[in-house]
Amino acid sequence: MTDARLAGLAARLPNLRLLTDPADLEHYGRDWTRRWTPAPLAIALPGELAEVQGIVRWANEHGVALVPSGGRTGLSGGAVAATGELVLSLERMNRVLGFDAVDRTLTVQAGMTLHAVHEAAKEHALIYPVDFAARGSCSIGGNIATNAGGIRVIRYGNTREWIAGLTVVAGNGELLRLNRGLIKNSSGYDLRQLMIGSEGTLGVVVEATLRLTDPPPPSQVMLLALPGMDALMEVFALFRSRLTLQAFEFFTDAALRHVLAHGAQRAIDGEHPYYVVTEFDADEASQDAVLAAFEQGVERGWINDGVIAQSEAQAAALWRLREGITESLAPHKPYKNDISLRISALPLFLQEIQALLGREYPHFDVVWFGHIGDGNLHINVLRPENLSEGDFIKQCEQVTKLLADTLQRHGGSISAEHGIGLVKRAYLGSTRSEAEIALMRGVKQAFDPKGLLNPGKLFV
Questions:
Q1: Does residue 107 sit in helix, strand or coil?
Q2: Long-range residue pairs from 41-44, CB within 8 A, at least 24 positions apart, any chain
Q3: Which BP terms from GO are recorded (predicted)?
Q4: Is 372 a residue whose pLDDT tops 90?
Q5: Other residues' Cβ atoms within 10 Å of the Cβ of residue 316
Q6: Which residue segment(s) compose the domain that 102 sits in?
Q7: Contacts of 384 by beta carbon, 8 Å cutoff, 6+ apart
Q8: The CATH number of the domain where 67 resides is what?
């Protein structure tokens, strides 16, 4: 702790944990992108709200940039600290603060993992419905910062729909209590919603009041094998018309190969170019409906094969084929694109982008998967062993520019659920107009006058 500024911070907040060990700096200074060399000043781990305020006020006095940090499972460089920032990790602030049975809300600290929130809601026979594969390590604060979506968006929507109130420390250290759990509140601008998806650039989320809901009815999980990309939207429309869908996820044969090599078990024999995992409400009517939908899909040439889980263990095994993809690809250091379109725009876009990627990435292994039911696609390009990381990223960024242009023509977004961060800031203009970006910069200035909260993220 040789830096005089850190010594002053430690003296001001004697119970604050400060880490400066090189291993800690590396661990807390990066997210899942692994593209930047971590170089934070130190890691601050507050244990209470007042310490967060103290850190932010100290940062203003000394001009030290702050990087708010949750589980660091993001894929856009939003939690990277590579230029001497102080990482402000909320992982110690991970408690349930209260449950309201009448309002059916759960108030938690921002450092709680999504899995811990699920378990806390379950204790009251309710659920917090936002869910995705990183549930065990991602934090609620990080979910809020990126408006995380996941595998249940088709039924429940994004994080935004489930935030009843927020407690936030703004860029000047001021404490803001936003919306306070109200269902109706027409008293001006909804600053709570402004914070959601702001990637830690406007304030540090320290507490959140989450809306809970009833558990869904019993469900069934089904895996489908499809003959081609054109069949994806046809099958989605068919199943959505016959069943109450909870999830509808797709992945390619390339994704399947990687997840099988990572330990998952094959569920359908043969080779098929596309697969869908879908989950739907299970009742007496759905049994006949799903068989009728499956038979119609086969007759029309949209479905090659399928299997319905007969137990919870089989359902989990089918879901592993989809949820295990990201982990299976991690050793290959993929270049990731996380894009979003209106569902109605997907068919034409998919044709264009398949041709684009085939033309621009002829020698690369490109792995597709995603939330087709809400228009969100994940495109992962795997780096060949004989290509340096720098050259690989350079080639990928050239194609991302073409992808961004294509998205702009189709009215899509370069970021669906992982934020802009460092990775996508050069392409923000493909999703937002110059006027919008100017207003966003003005909002940033209002909440963070000295520009110390997560600088360099979101905007170039």
A1: strand
A2: 41/3, 41/5, 41/6, 41/84, 41/85, 41/86, 42/3, 42/6, 42/18, 42/86, 42/87, 43/18, 43/19, 43/86, 43/87, 43/89, 44/9, 44/16, 44/17, 44/18, 44/86, 44/87, 44/88, 44/89
A3: respiratory electron transport chain
A4: no
A5: 12
A6: 96-211
A7: 363, 364, 365, 392
A8: 3.30.43.10
Closest to 117 in 3D by CA, of 45, 247, 208: 208
Residues 95-105: pLDDT tens digits?
999 999 999 99
Q: Are 274 and 252 in contact (CB under 8 A)?
A: yes
Domain match, 78 and 129 both: no
* Dihedral angle sign, alpha carbons of residues 232, 258, 322, 316: positive
pLDDT of 1 > 70? The answer is no
**Whether residue 344 is found in the same domain as residue 311:** no
Quick one: tokens of 205? 């989320």
> In whole angstroms, what is the distance from residue 104 CA to residue 210 CA?
9
**pLDDT for 185-230, tens place per residue?**
999 999 999 999 999 999 999 999 999 999 999 999 999 999 998 8
Could you tell me the pLDDT band of residue 284, with boundaries at 50, 70 and 90?
confident
What are the helix (H) ranges across 129-225? Answer: 140-146, 153-156, 191-195
